[in-house]
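User: Design a sequence. Structure:
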């Protein structure tokens, strides 16, 4: 192989190496972002039932108040 061809191959390999390095950085960044999203989603999944429980409790309290104040329609 001539010196010129070797230099061309070396330049191509260096370019590939640089691109792989950038891809590795991007993958690391994406992994970090994905982990953050998973943690956020996990928090939402845990807190959602608690929110439903609080809404149910408030609904029961409002219904009880309406009954005591006779604000509720007998049909509903």
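Assistant: Done.
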């Amino acid at each position: 192989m001539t010196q010129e061809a070797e230099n061309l191959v070396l330049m191509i390999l260096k370019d590939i190496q640089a691109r792989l390095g950038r891809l590795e950085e991007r993958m690391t960044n994406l992994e970090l972002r994905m982990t953050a999203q998973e943690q956020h989603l996990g928090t939402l999944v845990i807190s959602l039932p608690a929110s439903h429980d609080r809404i149910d409790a408030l609904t029961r309290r409002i219904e009880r108040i309406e009954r005591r104040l006779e604000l509720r329609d007998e049909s509903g």
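The CA atoms of residues 3 and 9 lie 10 Å apart. DSSP finds one helix and no strands in the chain.
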